[in-house]
Structure formats: structure tokens, C-alpha cells
Please model this.
Amino acid sequence: MNPIPKLVILGRDGILNQYRDDHVKEPSEWVPVPGALEAVARLNHAGWHAVVATNQAGIGRGMIDMASLNAVHAHMMKTLVANGARVDAVFLCPHTPEDRCDCRKPLPGLMLDIGRRYGADLTQVPLVGDTARDMLAARAAGCQPHLLRSGRGASLDEAQLQQLAAQVPGLMVHADLSAFADYLLERERPERFGAEVEGGR
Model:
């Protein structure tokens, strides 16, 4: 596969859909965060490829089986398409913390797999999550760390955010996926303008 120059890694729960303490066990429980699917569509239209990296310990705990999880993700993909958006793939860790795997965030296994699969330089890849665990995974993998307040990140107070920022250099905080998309597309704008000026000389 040829390297993808514009790749973003998204968490699932709290990023694309509403977080549930009891896990999303069936398609009807997968409820989009307002504006999230439209944000993915805007990123796609600007040339960004999105993949999901998600811990799904509900499998290891016996709360959901792979067939049910696949049904949830099929529904997620269909709902994304209905909103003009797409996610290229879902990378998941099915283990519990007790399994001591290397793919459960905050360890970087999922991101390293994604980097290998897509030929991506992870230092150029934003990782978007809603927990300190996600941001520590971004640091471990060398990704750009972006914390959203749309899920579990909303419960972090200012002191906790400051502590996390000290642990994760370059941490950026956004209200939700729509705000992150605004930031990323705005960040690209000077590059596009510069290319147009140079090309017009």
C-alpha cells in the first residue's frame, strides 16, 4: 500500500459516539456525538483519511462478542456514509487490563499497527481521544495528541488537564470533533494559500 500523507486516528466512544459505561453492545446503542459525523465528512473532503483505534474490553469481559461488535461497526460505517463521511478501518484491542497485552491504550500497539499498515510517519498523524489513556498512547506512539471534551474528557478539571499537559508534550484540547476539524483545516489553510501564491507567479 502506498503511504497515505494525511491520516488521522480517532477514538470511538466519546469521539464519534456517546460514551456508555456499560459498553455499546448493539447497533441501537451507538448514538453519534452531535456534529461528529459531519466533522469526519469535512476532513474526508479535505483529503484526510480516518481510522479508528479503540479499546473494547467488553469482548474480553464477555459483555459483547465479535459478531455483535461487527454489527455495531457495520451500523457505524453505514451511518457515516449517510452523512457523507467514511472511516477506512477499525483497529481494536479486545483485551482487558489483566491480559497485559501490548495493544490496549495507553500502550502504543494499535497505533504502531496503523503506522505499519498505512506506511505513515506517526509524528505527522493526529491522534484524537477523550481520555488521559488516549493521550499517553499518543505520546508512546509519537502521534500528535488531541484531547476532546465531548466524552470522558469533560470530567477532567483544570488541575488534571495541567497534569496531563505536563506528561504529554504538545497536548491540544478541543471541545469536540467538530472543533478539532476546524483546527486541523485552519492549520492547513496557510499552506494552501502559499502554494497558490507560488503557483501564480
The longest strand covers residues 49-55.
